[in-house]
Amino acid sequence: MSWDFETDPVFQKKLDWVDEFVRHEVEPLDLVWPHDNYKPLDDEHRRIVDPLKQQVRDQGLWACHLEPTLGGQGYGQLKLALLNEILGRSTWAPVIFGTQAPDTGNAEIIAHFGTPEQKATYLQPLLEGEIFSTYSMTEPQGGADVSGFETTAVRDGDDWVINGSKFFSSNARYATFFIVMAYTDKEAGPHDGMSMFLVPADTPGITIERNLALIHEPAEEGSEAYIRYEDVRVPSTALLGEEGKAFQVAQVRLGGGRVHHAMRTVGLAQRALDMMCERALSRVTRGRSLAERETVQSYIAESYAQLAQFRLFVLRTAWLIDKTQDYAQCRKDISAIKFLTPKVLHDIVQRSIQVHGALGVTQDTPLAKMWITAPVMGLVDGPTEVHLRQVARAVLKEHDATAGLWPTDHIPTKLAAAQAKLGVA
Length: 425
Ligand SMILES: Cc1cc2nc3c(=O)[nH]c(=O)nc-3n(C[C@H](O)[C@H](O)[C@H](O)COP(=O)(O)OP(=O)(O)OC[C@H]3O[C@@H](n4cnc5c(N)ncnc54)[C@H](O)[C@@H]3O)c2cc1C
Known about the structure:
Structural class: alpha+beta
Bound molecules: flavin-adenine dinucleotide
Protein backbone atom coordinates (compact mmCIF):
# COMPACT_ATOMS: atom_id res chain seq x y z
CA MET A 1 0.00 0.00 0.00
CA SER A 2 1.37 3.37 -0.97
CA TRP A 3 0.07 6.41 0.89
CA ASP A 4 3.05 8.62 1.40
CA PHE A 5 3.19 12.27 2.48
CA GLU A 6 6.99 12.55 2.38
CA THR A 7 8.85 14.72 -0.11
CA ASP A 8 11.67 12.95 -1.94
CA PRO A 9 14.81 14.02 0.04
CA VAL A 10 16.76 15.05 -3.07
CA PHE A 11 13.92 17.33 -4.17
CA GLN A 12 13.49 18.58 -0.59
CA LYS A 13 17.10 19.84 -0.77
CA LYS A 14 16.14 21.84 -3.88
CA LEU A 15 13.10 23.21 -2.08
CA ASP A 16 15.25 24.22 0.89
CA TRP A 17 17.57 26.10 -1.46
CA VAL A 18 14.58 27.83 -3.11
CA ASP A 19 13.12 28.80 0.26
CA GLU A 20 16.37 30.42 1.43
CA PHE A 21 16.94 32.09 -1.94
CA VAL A 22 13.42 33.54 -2.20
CA ARG A 23 13.42 34.84 1.38
CA HIS A 24 16.86 36.43 1.29
CA GLU A 25 17.58 37.29 -2.34
CA VAL A 26 14.21 37.78 -4.06
CA GLU A 27 11.89 39.27 -1.44
CA PRO A 28 14.00 42.46 -1.22
CA LEU A 29 13.00 43.15 -4.84
CA ASP A 30 9.32 43.10 -3.80
CA LEU A 31 10.12 45.98 -1.45
CA VAL A 32 12.25 48.18 -3.69
CA TRP A 33 10.37 47.57 -6.96
CA PRO A 34 6.81 46.57 -5.99
CA HIS A 35 5.27 47.39 -9.39
CA ASP A 36 8.11 46.56 -11.78
CA ASN A 37 7.88 42.80 -12.10
CA TYR A 38 6.19 42.97 -15.53
CA LYS A 39 8.32 45.76 -16.97
CA PRO A 40 11.10 45.17 -19.49
CA LEU A 41 14.40 45.32 -17.63
CA ASP A 42 16.51 48.47 -17.83
CA ASP A 43 20.22 48.44 -16.92
CA GLU A 44 19.62 49.12 -13.23
CA HIS A 45 17.15 46.22 -12.93
CA ARG A 46 19.36 43.92 -15.02
CA ARG A 47 22.32 44.48 -12.71
CA ILE A 48 20.34 42.81 -9.91
CA VAL A 49 17.89 40.56 -11.74
CA ASP A 50 20.13 38.83 -14.30
CA PRO A 51 22.54 37.33 -11.72
CA LEU A 52 19.55 36.07 -9.68
CA LYS A 53 18.08 34.41 -12.79
CA GLN A 54 21.51 32.88 -13.44
CA GLN A 55 21.59 31.36 -9.96
CA VAL A 56 18.21 29.76 -10.67
CA ARG A 57 19.53 28.42 -13.99
CA ASP A 58 22.63 27.05 -12.26
CA GLN A 59 20.34 25.12 -9.93
CA GLY A 60 18.48 23.71 -12.96
CA LEU A 61 15.30 25.40 -11.77
CA TRP A 62 14.67 27.91 -14.59
CA ALA A 63 11.16 27.58 -16.17
CA CYS A 64 10.94 24.11 -14.71
CA HIS A 65 7.22 23.82 -15.53
CA LEU A 66 8.36 23.06 -19.09
CA GLU A 67 9.08 19.73 -20.69
CA PRO A 68 12.78 18.78 -20.95
CA THR A 69 12.68 19.35 -24.72
CA LEU A 70 12.01 23.03 -23.97
CA GLY A 71 14.68 23.31 -21.31
CA GLY A 72 12.56 22.42 -18.27
CA GLN A 73 13.04 19.56 -15.86
CA GLY A 74 9.85 17.68 -16.75
CA TYR A 75 8.77 17.93 -13.12
CA GLY A 76 5.26 16.66 -12.62
CA GLN A 77 2.53 18.79 -11.08
CA LEU A 78 3.26 17.57 -7.55
CA LYS A 79 6.84 18.83 -7.57
CA LEU A 80 5.74 22.05 -9.26
CA ALA A 81 3.09 22.50 -6.59
CA LEU A 82 5.68 22.25 -3.81
CA LEU A 83 7.88 24.73 -5.65
CA ASN A 84 5.03 27.16 -6.30
CA GLU A 85 4.15 27.11 -2.62
CA ILE A 86 7.48 28.84 -1.96
CA LEU A 87 7.32 31.16 -4.99
CA GLY A 88 3.86 32.31 -3.89
CA ARG A 89 5.45 34.32 -1.07
CA SER A 90 6.99 36.84 -3.46
CA THR A 91 5.78 38.99 -6.38
CA TRP A 92 9.16 38.82 -8.10
CA ALA A 93 9.88 35.12 -7.56
CA PRO A 94 7.96 33.93 -10.67
CA VAL A 95 10.02 36.35 -12.83
CA ILE A 96 13.29 35.18 -11.33
CA PHE A 97 12.27 31.53 -11.85
CA GLY A 98 10.82 31.99 -15.37
CA THR A 99 7.32 31.03 -14.27
CA GLN A 100 5.52 34.35 -14.61
CA ALA A 101 1.84 34.28 -15.67
CA PRO A 102 0.51 34.87 -18.29
CA ASP A 103 3.79 34.09 -20.08
CA THR A 104 3.92 30.54 -18.70
CA GLY A 105 0.49 29.64 -20.04
CA ASN A 106 1.20 31.41 -23.32
CA ALA A 107 4.49 29.52 -23.69
CA GLU A 108 2.67 26.26 -22.99
CA ILE A 109 0.16 26.75 -25.79
CA ILE A 110 2.78 27.89 -28.30
CA ALA A 111 4.88 24.84 -27.36
CA HIS A 112 1.81 22.64 -27.78
CA PHE A 113 0.22 24.11 -30.92
CA GLY A 114 2.84 26.38 -32.52
CA THR A 115 4.48 25.76 -35.89
CA PRO A 116 8.31 25.58 -35.94
CA GLU A 117 8.39 29.21 -37.22
CA GLN A 118 6.05 30.41 -34.46
CA LYS A 119 8.17 28.66 -31.86
CA ALA A 120 11.35 30.25 -33.21
CA THR A 121 9.81 33.74 -33.28
CA TYR A 122 7.86 33.77 -30.03
CA LEU A 123 8.61 30.80 -27.82
CA GLN A 124 12.38 30.95 -27.50
CA PRO A 125 12.61 34.60 -26.38
CA LEU A 126 9.63 34.05 -24.07
CA LEU A 127 11.38 31.09 -22.44
CA GLU A 128 14.54 33.15 -22.04
CA GLY A 129 12.50 35.68 -20.07
CA GLU A 130 13.53 38.38 -22.53
CA ILE A 131 10.06 39.37 -23.74
CA PHE A 132 6.56 39.50 -22.28
CA SER A 133 3.27 38.40 -23.82
CA THR A 134 -0.45 39.03 -23.41
CA TYR A 135 -3.43 36.73 -23.49
CA SER A 136 -6.29 38.68 -25.03
CA MET A 137 -9.53 36.76 -24.59
CA THR A 138 -11.94 38.56 -22.22
CA GLU A 139 -14.12 41.28 -23.79
CA PRO A 140 -15.82 44.28 -22.20
CA GLN A 141 -19.27 42.75 -22.70
CA GLY A 142 -18.37 39.10 -22.07
CA GLY A 143 -15.92 37.39 -19.73
CA ALA A 144 -17.01 34.17 -18.07
CA ASP A 145 -19.53 33.55 -20.85
CA VAL A 146 -17.55 33.05 -24.03
CA SER A 147 -20.73 33.06 -26.07
CA GLY A 148 -20.83 36.82 -25.46
CA PHE A 149 -17.59 37.42 -27.37
CA GLU A 150 -17.83 39.58 -30.48
CA THR A 151 -14.28 39.98 -31.82
CA THR A 152 -13.96 38.56 -35.32
CA ALA A 153 -11.16 37.57 -37.66
CA VAL A 154 -12.16 37.55 -41.32
CA ARG A 155 -10.13 36.07 -44.17
CA ASP A 156 -8.92 38.54 -46.78
CA GLY A 157 -6.73 36.84 -49.38
CA ASP A 158 -3.86 35.24 -47.47
CA ASP A 159 -4.45 37.44 -44.43
CA TRP A 160 -6.81 37.57 -41.47
CA VAL A 161 -8.33 40.90 -40.44
CA ILE A 162 -9.21 41.22 -36.74
CA ASN A 163 -11.83 43.62 -35.38
CA GLY A 164 -13.18 43.95 -31.86
CA SER A 165 -12.40 44.98 -28.28
CA LYS A 166 -10.70 43.12 -25.46
CA PHE A 167 -10.69 43.84 -21.75
CA PHE A 168 -8.26 42.91 -18.98
CA SER A 169 -5.51 41.81 -21.36
CA SER A 170 -2.93 41.74 -18.57
CA ASN A 171 0.39 43.36 -19.23
CA ALA A 172 -0.35 44.41 -22.83
CA ARG A 173 1.53 47.67 -22.29
CA TYR A 174 4.81 45.74 -21.93
CA ALA A 175 4.08 42.83 -24.25
CA THR A 176 5.90 42.07 -27.48
CA PHE A 177 3.01 40.02 -28.83
CA PHE A 178 -0.60 39.26 -28.04
CA ILE A 179 -2.48 35.96 -28.29
CA VAL A 180 -5.91 37.03 -29.50
CA MET A 181 -9.04 34.90 -29.51
CA ALA A 182 -11.55 35.78 -32.25
CA TYR A 183 -14.52 34.33 -34.06
CA THR A 184 -13.60 32.96 -37.46
CA ASP A 185 -17.01 31.34 -37.91
CA LYS A 186 -19.80 32.80 -35.80
CA GLU A 187 -22.31 30.23 -37.06
CA ALA A 188 -20.25 27.40 -35.59
CA GLY A 189 -20.61 28.90 -32.08
CA PRO A 190 -17.93 29.49 -29.44
CA HIS A 191 -16.64 25.93 -29.16
CA ASP A 192 -15.96 25.37 -32.86
CA GLY A 193 -16.02 28.86 -34.34
CA MET A 194 -13.23 30.73 -32.53
CA SER A 195 -9.53 30.73 -33.39
CA MET A 196 -6.32 31.95 -31.74
CA PHE A 197 -3.89 34.36 -33.39
CA LEU A 198 -0.34 35.43 -32.59
CA VAL A 199 -0.28 39.18 -33.13
CA PRO A 200 2.87 41.35 -32.78
CA ALA A 201 2.15 44.25 -30.42
CA ASP A 202 3.22 46.86 -33.00
CA THR A 203 0.74 45.67 -35.67
CA PRO A 204 -1.17 48.70 -37.04
CA GLY A 205 -4.75 48.95 -35.78
CA ILE A 206 -4.05 47.97 -32.15
CA THR A 207 -4.92 50.72 -29.67
CA ILE A 208 -4.61 50.35 -25.92
CA GLU A 209 -7.47 52.61 -24.80
CA ARG A 210 -6.70 52.33 -21.10
CA ASN A 211 -4.54 50.45 -18.64
CA LEU A 212 -6.76 49.76 -15.65
CA ALA A 213 -5.14 49.57 -12.21
CA LEU A 214 -6.19 47.04 -9.59
CA ILE A 215 -7.36 48.39 -6.22
CA HIS A 216 -3.92 48.27 -4.60
CA GLU A 217 -2.00 49.68 -7.57
CA PRO A 218 -1.26 53.35 -8.27
CA ALA A 219 -3.42 54.43 -11.26
CA GLU A 220 -0.35 55.03 -13.45
CA GLU A 221 0.96 51.52 -12.77
CA GLY A 222 -2.20 49.80 -14.07
CA SER A 223 -1.56 47.07 -16.61
CA GLU A 224 -4.99 45.51 -17.26
CA ALA A 225 -5.49 46.71 -20.81
CA TYR A 226 -8.67 47.71 -22.59
CA ILE A 227 -7.71 47.20 -26.23
CA ARG A 228 -9.35 48.11 -29.52
CA TYR A 229 -8.48 45.99 -32.57
CA GLU A 230 -9.38 47.88 -35.76
CA ASP A 231 -8.67 46.19 -39.07
CA VAL A 232 -5.64 44.47 -37.56
CA ARG A 233 -4.15 42.54 -40.44
CA VAL A 234 -2.07 39.42 -39.80
CA PRO A 235 -0.85 36.76 -42.25
CA SER A 236 -2.37 33.27 -42.33
CA THR A 237 0.74 32.04 -40.49
CA ALA A 238 -0.49 33.96 -37.41
CA LEU A 239 -3.11 31.29 -36.71
CA LEU A 240 -2.15 29.35 -33.56
CA GLY A 241 -3.50 25.81 -33.61
CA GLU A 242 -6.31 24.73 -35.87
CA GLU A 243 -8.89 27.14 -37.24
CA GLY A 244 -12.01 27.05 -35.03
CA LYS A 245 -10.20 25.32 -32.14
CA ALA A 246 -9.39 28.25 -29.85
CA PHE A 247 -11.46 26.75 -27.08
CA GLN A 248 -9.38 23.59 -26.98
CA VAL A 249 -6.18 25.67 -27.09
CA ALA A 250 -7.47 27.75 -24.16
CA GLN A 251 -8.17 24.63 -22.09
CA VAL A 252 -4.50 23.55 -22.32
CA ARG A 253 -3.53 26.86 -20.66
CA LEU A 254 -5.77 26.37 -17.69
CA GLY A 255 -5.24 22.91 -16.23
CA GLY A 256 -1.79 23.29 -14.69
CA GLY A 257 -2.22 27.03 -14.14
CA ARG A 258 -5.07 26.55 -11.67
CA VAL A 259 -2.97 24.18 -9.56
CA HIS A 260 -0.08 26.66 -9.61
CA HIS A 261 -2.36 29.53 -8.52
CA ALA A 262 -3.73 27.38 -5.71
CA MET A 263 -0.31 26.40 -4.43
CA ARG A 264 1.07 29.93 -4.64
CA THR A 265 -1.96 30.90 -2.57
CA VAL A 266 -1.00 28.29 0.04
CA GLY A 267 2.39 30.02 0.32
CA LEU A 268 0.74 33.42 0.64
CA ALA A 269 -1.80 32.25 3.22
CA GLN A 270 0.97 30.56 5.24
CA ARG A 271 2.76 33.90 5.32
CA ALA A 272 -0.41 35.59 6.62
CA LEU A 273 -0.74 32.87 9.28
CA ASP A 274 2.92 33.24 10.31
CA MET A 275 2.36 36.98 10.66
CA MET A 276 -0.79 36.38 12.70
CA CYS A 277 1.08 34.09 15.13
CA GLU A 278 4.02 36.45 15.53
CA ARG A 279 1.70 39.38 16.21
CA ALA A 280 -0.41 37.35 18.65
CA LEU A 281 2.71 36.41 20.60
CA SER A 282 4.12 39.95 20.54
CA ARG A 283 1.13 42.20 21.25
CA VAL A 284 -0.04 42.66 24.81
CA THR A 285 -3.44 44.05 25.81
CA ARG A 286 -4.64 44.32 29.41
CA GLY A 287 -1.54 42.56 30.64
CA ARG A 288 -1.91 39.43 28.50
CA SER A 289 -0.61 38.58 25.05
CA LEU A 290 -3.15 38.23 22.25
CA ALA A 291 -1.97 34.61 21.95
CA GLU A 292 -3.60 33.93 25.32
CA ARG A 293 -7.04 35.18 24.19
CA GLU A 294 -9.43 32.42 23.26
CA THR A 295 -10.83 34.19 20.21
CA VAL A 296 -7.37 34.79 18.79
CA GLN A 297 -6.50 31.15 19.51
CA SER A 298 -9.58 30.17 17.48
CA TYR A 299 -8.40 32.37 14.59
CA ILE A 300 -5.02 30.63 14.63
CA ALA A 301 -6.40 27.09 15.02
CA GLU A 302 -9.04 27.56 12.32
CA SER A 303 -6.50 29.09 9.94
CA TYR A 304 -4.04 26.27 10.54
CA ALA A 305 -6.66 23.57 9.92
CA GLN A 306 -8.19 25.35 6.90
CA LEU A 307 -4.78 25.78 5.31
CA ALA A 308 -3.66 22.22 6.08
CA GLN A 309 -6.75 20.69 4.49
CA PHE A 310 -6.56 22.97 1.45
CA ARG A 311 -2.87 22.23 1.00
CA LEU A 312 -3.46 18.48 1.10
CA PHE A 313 -6.33 18.81 -1.37
CA VAL A 314 -4.16 20.77 -3.80
CA LEU A 315 -1.26 18.34 -3.46
CA ARG A 316 -3.57 15.37 -3.93
CA THR A 317 -4.99 16.98 -7.08
CA ALA A 318 -1.45 17.57 -8.40
CA TRP A 319 -0.62 13.93 -7.59
CA LEU A 320 -3.78 12.78 -9.42
CA ILE A 321 -2.80 14.78 -12.53
CA ASP A 322 0.64 13.14 -12.49
CA LYS A 323 -0.92 9.71 -12.02
CA THR A 324 -3.58 9.98 -14.72
CA GLN A 325 -1.74 12.37 -17.07
CA ASP A 326 -5.25 13.51 -17.97
CA TYR A 327 -6.57 16.94 -16.96
CA ALA A 328 -10.10 16.04 -18.06
CA GLN A 329 -10.24 13.21 -15.51
CA CYS A 330 -9.13 15.61 -12.77
CA ARG A 331 -11.46 18.46 -13.75
CA LYS A 332 -13.75 18.06 -10.74
CA ASP A 333 -10.89 18.42 -8.24
CA ILE A 334 -9.17 21.19 -10.23
CA SER A 335 -12.43 23.19 -10.15
CA ALA A 336 -12.88 22.45 -6.44
CA ILE A 337 -9.44 23.79 -5.51
CA LYS A 338 -10.09 26.73 -7.85
CA PHE A 339 -13.19 27.84 -5.93
CA LEU A 340 -11.57 27.16 -2.55
CA THR A 341 -8.51 29.30 -3.39
CA PRO A 342 -10.07 32.76 -2.84
CA LYS A 343 -12.00 31.59 0.23
CA VAL A 344 -8.99 30.14 2.05
CA LEU A 345 -6.89 33.20 1.27
CA HIS A 346 -9.65 35.60 2.27
CA ASP A 347 -10.43 33.88 5.57
CA ILE A 348 -6.84 33.60 6.77
CA VAL A 349 -5.77 37.07 5.65
CA GLN A 350 -8.90 38.61 7.17
CA ARG A 351 -8.10 37.02 10.56
CA SER A 352 -4.47 38.11 10.30
CA ILE A 353 -5.54 41.69 9.55
CA GLN A 354 -7.87 41.62 12.55
CA VAL A 355 -5.09 40.44 14.87
CA HIS A 356 -2.80 43.21 13.56
CA GLY A 357 -5.41 45.84 14.45
CA ALA A 358 -5.15 49.19 12.66
CA LEU A 359 -1.69 48.33 11.35
CA GLY A 360 -3.28 45.48 9.39
CA VAL A 361 -5.31 47.79 7.16
CA THR A 362 -2.37 49.99 6.18
CA GLN A 363 0.19 49.54 3.44
CA ASP A 364 2.89 48.98 6.07
CA THR A 365 2.37 45.20 5.94
CA PRO A 366 1.82 42.88 2.95
CA LEU A 367 -1.61 41.93 4.31
CA ALA A 368 -3.62 44.54 2.40
CA LYS A 369 -2.23 43.34 -0.94
CA MET A 370 -2.86 39.71 0.04
CA TRP A 371 -6.42 40.62 0.96
CA ILE A 372 -7.23 42.06 -2.48
CA THR A 373 -5.60 39.03 -4.09
CA ALA A 374 -8.44 36.90 -2.70
CA PRO A 375 -11.24 38.36 -4.89
CA VAL A 376 -8.85 38.44 -7.85
CA MET A 377 -8.39 34.67 -7.39
CA GLY A 378 -12.17 34.34 -7.47
CA LEU A 379 -12.27 35.85 -10.98
CA VAL A 380 -9.17 34.90 -12.93
CA ASP A 381 -9.43 31.65 -14.89
CA GLY A 382 -13.21 31.66 -14.44
CA PRO A 383 -15.37 32.96 -11.60
CA THR A 384 -16.12 30.89 -8.50
CA GLU A 385 -19.75 30.30 -9.46
CA VAL A 386 -18.80 28.61 -12.71
CA HIS A 387 -16.48 26.21 -10.87
CA LEU A 388 -19.09 25.50 -8.18
CA ARG A 389 -21.50 24.46 -10.92
CA GLN A 390 -18.83 22.35 -12.60
CA VAL A 391 -18.08 20.48 -9.37
CA ALA A 392 -21.76 20.02 -8.49
CA ARG A 393 -22.47 18.60 -11.94
CA ALA A 394 -19.53 16.20 -11.73
CA VAL A 395 -20.52 15.02 -8.25
CA LEU A 396 -24.17 14.60 -9.27
CA LYS A 397 -23.08 12.51 -12.27
CA GLU A 398 -21.74 9.97 -9.78
CA HIS A 399 -25.24 9.57 -8.27
CA ASP A 400 -28.70 8.41 -9.35
CA ALA A 401 -32.20 9.44 -8.35
CA THR A 402 -34.08 6.91 -6.25
CA ALA A 403 -36.92 5.13 -8.02
CA GLY A 404 -39.19 4.89 -4.99
CA LEU A 405 -40.92 7.35 -2.71
CA TRP A 406 -38.33 7.22 0.08
CA PRO A 407 -34.60 7.90 0.08
CA THR A 408 -32.36 4.82 -0.15
CA ASP A 409 -31.32 5.46 3.45
CA HIS A 410 -34.91 5.63 4.72
CA ILE A 411 -34.50 3.74 7.99
CA PRO A 412 -37.98 2.12 8.27
CA THR A 413 -37.64 0.74 4.72
CA LYS A 414 -34.11 -0.52 5.35
CA LEU A 415 -35.08 -1.95 8.72
CA ALA A 416 -37.91 -3.95 7.11
CA ALA A 417 -35.47 -5.28 4.49
CA ALA A 418 -32.87 -6.14 7.17
CA GLN A 419 -35.50 -7.95 9.27
CA ALA A 420 -36.65 -9.93 6.23
CA LYS A 421 -33.04 -10.83 5.35
CA LEU A 422 -32.15 -11.93 8.86
CA GLY A 423 -35.54 -13.52 9.62
CA VAL A 424 -36.02 -11.49 12.80
CA ALA A 425 -39.07 -9.46 13.81
C1 LIG B 1 -6.28 40.50 -12.27
C2 LIG B 1 -6.99 39.94 -13.47
C3 LIG B 1 -6.23 39.57 -14.58
C4 LIG B 1 -6.87 39.07 -15.72
N1 LIG B 1 -6.11 38.77 -16.80
C5 LIG B 1 -6.71 38.41 -17.96
C6 LIG B 1 -5.92 38.21 -19.14
O1 LIG B 1 -4.70 38.32 -19.13
N2 LIG B 1 -6.58 37.92 -20.31
C7 LIG B 1 -7.92 37.79 -20.36
O2 LIG B 1 -8.43 37.49 -21.44
N3 LIG B 1 -8.69 37.96 -19.25
C8 LIG B 1 -8.12 38.28 -18.05
N4 LIG B 1 -8.89 38.50 -16.93
C9 LIG B 1 -10.33 38.45 -17.03
C10 LIG B 1 -10.94 37.24 -16.37
O3 LIG B 1 -10.68 36.08 -17.12
C11 LIG B 1 -12.43 37.56 -16.24
O4 LIG B 1 -12.52 38.54 -15.23
C12 LIG B 1 -13.28 36.37 -15.89
O5 LIG B 1 -13.38 35.47 -16.95
C13 LIG B 1 -14.71 36.84 -15.55
O6 LIG B 1 -15.22 37.63 -16.58
P1 LIG B 1 -15.83 39.10 -16.23
O7 LIG B 1 -14.86 39.83 -15.38
O8 LIG B 1 -16.26 39.70 -17.51
O9 LIG B 1 -17.09 38.79 -15.33
P2 LIG B 1 -18.53 38.35 -15.83
O10 LIG B 1 -18.43 37.28 -16.84
O11 LIG B 1 -19.31 39.57 -16.18
O12 LIG B 1 -19.09 37.76 -14.50
C14 LIG B 1 -19.35 38.63 -13.37
C15 LIG B 1 -19.89 37.81 -12.25
O13 LIG B 1 -21.11 37.19 -12.64
C16 LIG B 1 -21.24 35.94 -12.00
N5 LIG B 1 -21.31 34.89 -13.03
C17 LIG B 1 -20.77 34.90 -14.25
N6 LIG B 1 -21.05 33.75 -14.91
C18 LIG B 1 -21.81 33.02 -14.08
C19 LIG B 1 -22.44 31.73 -14.17
N7 LIG B 1 -22.32 30.98 -15.27
N8 LIG B 1 -23.14 31.28 -13.10
C20 LIG B 1 -23.26 32.05 -11.98
N9 LIG B 1 -22.70 33.26 -11.84
C21 LIG B 1 -21.99 33.75 -12.87
C22 LIG B 1 -19.98 35.78 -11.13
O14 LIG B 1 -20.25 36.27 -9.85
C23 LIG B 1 -18.99 36.64 -11.83
O15 LIG B 1 -17.92 37.06 -11.00
C24 LIG B 1 -8.28 38.95 -15.74
C25 LIG B 1 -9.02 39.29 -14.62
C26 LIG B 1 -8.40 39.77 -13.49
C27 LIG B 1 -9.23 40.16 -12.30
